[in-house]
Design goal:
The protein is mostly helical. The chain is built from 15 helices and no strands. The chain has 2 domains: 285 residues, Rhopdopsin 7-helix transmembrane proteins, CATH 1.20.1070; 39 residues. Helix content is 70%, strand content 0%. Helix 1 packs antiparallel against helix 2, helix 1 runs parallel beside helix 11 and helix 5 packs across helix 6. The radius of gyration is 23 Å and the shape is globular.
């Protein structure tokens, strides 16, 4: 049996098992999770494994069209990160309640290295707002990067794997995505540190590790495989059944997709325990957990699923965050204009 065929078979088995296990967990939450305020976010997170597994398998099998499937996977990654953040916010009572809770807590310092560049964010509304903006910025950046990837690929200037080639878009996109993803995960870590005591009842650590490992680990894993291709460890000399069909970059891309297919079964098991239905049957969340919302689990399943795939809340959050950023810029510009030297007196115009 050729290595190529064996790889397809193994990845298909792992993909099928991942989808079945995650599908069972999704069905359990869809039919039994009584906390409607957080249910849609949990379902969106659980959908990561089957979407990652299926798109990676399709990218592996239909290698010539892999950018389409990888774009879907990458876009959903940003969507899942947003959902995880708002799952935590809703559990903690919403942004207003959370801001009031944080005002009485000890100041959270920036982590090693960052504290020399950025002052601590005051606990309260500003802390909630800045962590939200830091996480949400990853969504438009990821979507824009995916769009640029498709366009540059069609124009022949993408250059997958050519990280050091200044005439190709791949290196620039990797740099921007690395910064954006790292900042989003950093803000999520700060949020975790600031709300750790309040999150203890819902066992936050396994949930944080589950979401961060899928997003962070798979990304850096693909970067490592690309690096192995650059240094020549992965080359066209690998005998995978069709030497004329597989270039070094194609082998590296296929290897990345194959490994993700295998890993998703592991992450499906992790999700099964990290987001166990038992944690939500007795959940004492602080927001929208009254009897009316708990009885909503009896509503039509199709309505629940449509609520899961409805991205209107994501669009509204991005628009709101953009408005807050623009408002801050306008306030800074107004302060600058207020203290601008007068062209007539060359003195500072002080506010009345």
């Amino acid at each position: 049996m050729r290595v190529e065929t064996l790889g397809y078979a193994i990845s298909a088995i792992f993909t099928l098992l991942s989808v079945l296990l995650s599908g069972w967990e999704i069905w359990t939450h869809l039919t039994c999770n009584p906390v409607v305020s957080v249910r849609k976010y949990i379902l969106r997170i659980l959908l990561m494994v089957p979407i990652y597994a299926v798109t990676s398998y399709l990218a592996l099998v239909f290698n010539q069209h892999k950018l389409i499937f990888e774009t879907i996977r990458d876009c959903y990654e940003a969507f899942a990160l947003h959902s995880f953040y708002y799952f935590l916010v809703v559990y903690l009572g919403g942004q207003s309640v959370l801001a009031n809770t944080l005002r009485s807590k000890k100041q959270v310092r920036h982590l090693a290295g960052v504290q020399y560049c950025i002052k601590p964010w005051p606990m309260g509304n500003k802390f909630v707002r800045l962590t939200a903006i830091g996480i949400l910025q990853y969504i438009p950046v990821k979507l824009a990067a995916s769009f640029i990837t498709l366009i540059s690929s069609l124009l022949g200037v993408y250059g997958e794997g050519e990280m050091l080639n200044p005439l190709r878009a791949y290196g620039y996109l990797c740099f921007v995505l690395t910064l954006s993803q790292s900042w989003a995960l950093y803000c999520l870590t700060l949020f975790y540190l600031g709300t750790f005591d309040e999150l203890i009842p819902m066992k936050p650590l396994p949930k944080f590790l589950a979401i961060k490992m899928i997003i962070f680990f798979t990304y850096w894993q693909s970067m490592l495989i690309t690096l192995l291709e650059i240094v020549g460890v992965i080359s066209a000399d690998w005998n995978i059944g069709c030497p004329d069909c597989w270039s070094a970059s194609a082998i590296a891309s296929a290897l990345s997709d194959f490994v993700i297919c295998v890993e998703m079964l592991v992450f499906a098991v992790v999700h099964h325990y990290a987001f166990a239905i038992q944690d939500f049957l007795s959940m004492d969340c602080r927001y929208q957990c009254d009897e009316d919302h708990r009885s909503a689990v009896k509503a039509p399943l199709l309505a629940h699923f449509m609520d899961v795939i409805n991205v209107a809340d994501v669009r509204n959050d991005i628009t709101s965050s953009r408005g807050e950023i623009l408002t801050k810029k306008q306030q800074l510009a107004a302060k600058f204009d207020t203290y601008l030297p007068s062209p007539l007196t060359d003195e500072m115009l002080l506010p009345e």
